[in-house]
Hints:
This is L-amino acid N-acyltransferase YncA. The protein has helices spanning 15-28, 37-41, 45-54, 97-111, 126-134, and strands at 5-9, 57-62, 65-74, 80-88, 116-122, 138-145, 153-160. The chain has a single domain (5-160), classed as Aminopeptidase (3-Layer(aba) Sandwich). It is built from 5 helices and 7 strands. The protein is α+β, with helices and mostly antiparallel strands and 165 residues long. Strands 1-2-3-4-5-7-6 form a 7-stranded mixed sheet, with helices on both faces.
Amino acid sequence: MSGVISVRRVVEGELAALREVRLRALAADAAAFGSTLDGERTRSMAFWRERLARGPWFVAWAEQEAVGVVSAVPTPTRAEYRLEAMWVDQAWRGEGVADVLVDAVLAWSRSRGASSVTLWVFDGNPAARRFYERVGFRPVGRREQHPEKAEQVRECLRIQLRSDA
């Protein structure tokens, strides 16, 4: 598939679209996430509004179809953001969608003065790990069992946004 991809920050009027793409992500690639489809399917719109208030979400669009999603979550110091909930529709993988989603998170984080962005990647997701390393994320030496899925081990990766960090 190829086509023009646009990325937009989700606004409150697009909560239903955010929910829909997030549920598609959980249904398609459950093992890649700490959350579950059953857990998020039953959540109210207030839950989605709260998630949007925590930090920005970005959706990649191919015309009117949502083909990817990612969020940027500030850490308590706001010197670092966390890239979370990244997903690209299987039909659009390899088409640059992941790149533009990561670029959106990095640009947002830079605009807020962050010095770095971190993320967690599961050991069982080597394609995601290769992608993140290709765009500049590096291991920081932290590995852990996922707090909600103890059978899954994940590793923290970081990308520096400023040379003084």
